[in-house]
Amino acid sequence: MDRLDQEINRLTASEAGARLRRGDVTAEALARACLSRISSRDADVRAWSYINHDAVIREARELDKRPYGGPLHGIPFGVKDIFNTADMPTQHNSPIYAGAQPNTDAAAVGALRAAGALILGKTDTTEFAGTGRLAATRNPHDLSRTPGGSSSGSAAAVADCHVPLALGTQTGGSLIRPGSYCGVYAMKPTWNAVSAEGVKLGSTTLDTVGWYGRSVADLALVADAFALEDDAPTDFTSLEGARIAIDATPQTVEDCSSDALANMVRRLKMAGAHIVPLELSEIMAPLQGMWEIVARLEGRAAFLNLARLHPHTLHKEFVDRVNNVAGFSRANLIDAYDAAARARMQFDRTAREFDAVLTLSAPGEAPQARTQGDNTLNRDWTLLHVPCINIPVTLGPNRMPIGLTLTGQRYSDRHLLTVAAAMAALEPPG
Amino acid sequence: MDRLDQEINRLTASEAGARLRRGDVTAEALARACLSRISSRDADVRAWSYINHDAVIREARELDKRPYGGPLHGIPFGVKDIFNTADMPTQHNSPIYAGAQPNTDAAAVGALRAAGALILGKTDTTEFAGTGRLAATRNPHDLSRTPGGSSSGSAAAVADCHVPLALGTQTGGSLIRPGSYCGVYAMKPTWNAVSAEGVKLGSTTLDTVGWYGRSVADLALVADAFALEDDAPTDFTSLEGARIAIDATPQTVEDCSSDALANMVRRLKMAGAHIVPLELSEIMAPLQGMWEIVARLEGRAAFLNLARLHPHTLHKEFVDRVNNVAGFSRANLIDAYDAAARARMQFDRTAREFDAVLTLSAPGEAPQARTQGDNTLNRDWTLLHVPCINIPVTLGPNRMPIGLTLTGQRYSDRHLLTVAAAMAALEPPG
């Protein structure tokens, strides 16, 4: 393998796809470069829970034989290990599922395969994408730090150039937070815009399928494969004259995060954007505590079967949900549903007045502890069902990535991707 | 096999369970009686898409060896063929899944197995519980008539005493309507009170797991297995003095259905209930057309993978959803979500004033055509996420069953079961 082949794992999916289309590179060569990178790095990063080297090469050769099928043809994907895969174990980082091998693909995996994607392997996750066992994954920028959870392996694998793209999910902050900690682009689309069939269910109202990439263009390629559409093409063309709302709701965060936001505001202003500070307390205050209620009480039904069938191997965290140790009532749940529904209507009305709303992705750099990190800044957006895109914007005092979240009204996903691309293209701070 | 054994398939689950507990009957004998009934009837009724006679007997013997595990121990269940089952094919009445054999159980199936239930086989369904291919099932009361869809086989199997209990699902009227047409009790619990993991997803907002039985007590046994709870035990003790709202919203239905409701009102009054006619137009009018939008647009994401992977074998009905042939916008979908959320809050506030709300289950007897029947009367209740119980109340002019629906606020499932039991116990009309 020559030097070039060894480095093609660093290409974005868009760049690699252009070479694949032209025949300058094969799916096999791309897969080999990714596998080689993983071989040299994954003993440290531990992003993967399963890869079958030989099967990947076989699959890549099959894809090379087929007629070119579009921009994802032959592009290697990591898949969070709570998505069912017909040809790989799906272990959920749970002893209950150790070595378990479903024989069907999750709907999202099927849609990617239909687009010609190469499913390279399964990426580590916190137990059932919840709060039981942590992933073994380490932050590739500093192995002593967390990559964030729950989509730990997917974020780290993309950040460390093991694969250009990876699937994850978000129930609280499980896509955006690892995106910020690992310095990769992350997309949490509008709730239910992508099917969650065949993905471990934790909370029907919150669980959202999403993905990671190393460019906004790559996020858009995946959105294409999922037929993600706005009602009309966006009329956004430039940040000049764009109306960008800045979430000015008071939050307790580290200086590096608030500085990142302030710095991006300066850059946006220099690009000619109209910046409007937005106090969202009126919309968000009624959501106080509601995410927790929905996650816990929907978890009662979601984990009932495992609590009954595997009472001793299911992590206490989930058994506690089933037994409602938190002591929430069903009336609490209905109140939470209704409060969320009202807040969705209000936020959509507010967000509609702007090209995008910019807010924080995480309260600081990735912590040094064995932890998922804090999802306080993410979970209300998940409950609101709005699309969120993490944009890596700077490095903090420890040279760790810090991201910001671009959000907007439900089903403005494509528009947001366009705004995110413009924001990502801004000159770095001088 | 003596006469008694041949007839035990006619017992309710509660009755059979009492005998199993006492050791008067074995799970094997009960299973054999059910299989015998099926052998003699299913060439006509066609309720089943899969039964493995030998495997059922083996499983029953295993259950007989185990210590008694509770009221569902050894009770035979039918399972609608859109629930994954680890030991039986799951074919969805789709050529794509012909002979397909998942290797995991849907969460609901797992919870039943944990309670000791005997999964007897898979029951026929309309394609993906949607509007493609119809089930082959016929109405056991008149083979020239439909059992209703989409849970056709489950309703018919319970009605014809093939099994005492069966799982189904409702996205529009797929539990309540076949319950009414086949003359069995049906429970659609509060949305998301039972996990839909491992069930074919059609519409996240609408899909609801539910079940059939031949008594209200049997419905309650299944509710126990799913840990279905209200916040507090009901204070309902008797229909005497109970406040029952009658849905007086104008509907176009056959005389036999409106007569059935009027007749039940008379019986309730004779039992001393306070009857309050309830005009729900103010709450329901904004939902006009909304169910259709949610079902169609959520179907875009739900069937995308199959439309991409199997464009020629997926029924046009679903391909059309993916291609949005109906032409609804995402704004329509958001409006529908928000209208439904508002109506849920309003209906809960209204229903709270009563012990129950009584409404129609179907616009008449089961039609003679090859059709699922009309779900107009059911689908708004599905969208409202409220629990619904079908109570068979009378026979129509063609001696076909007619049911009524008892409903109430979200998470009043156990209370409603108690009211339903009292209503079912009323003396038949004289």
Describe this structure in words.
The structure is a homodimer of 430-residue chains. Chain A is globular and about 55 Å long. Chain A has one domain (1-425): Amidase signature (AS) domain (Amidase signature (AS) enzymes, Alpha-Beta Complex). By secondary structure, chain A is α/β, with parallel strands linked by helices. Chain A is built from 16 helices and eleven strands. The two termini of chain A are 39 Å apart. In chain A, helix 3 packs antiparallel against helix 4, helix 8 (216-225) runs antiparallel to helix 16 and helix 11 (290-302) crosses helix 14 (330-351). Chains A and B meet through helix 5, helix 11, helix 12 and helix 14 of A and helix 5, helix 11, helix 12 and helix 14 of B.
Gist of the model:
The structure is a homodimer. Chain A has about 425 residues and is α/β, with parallel strands linked by helices.
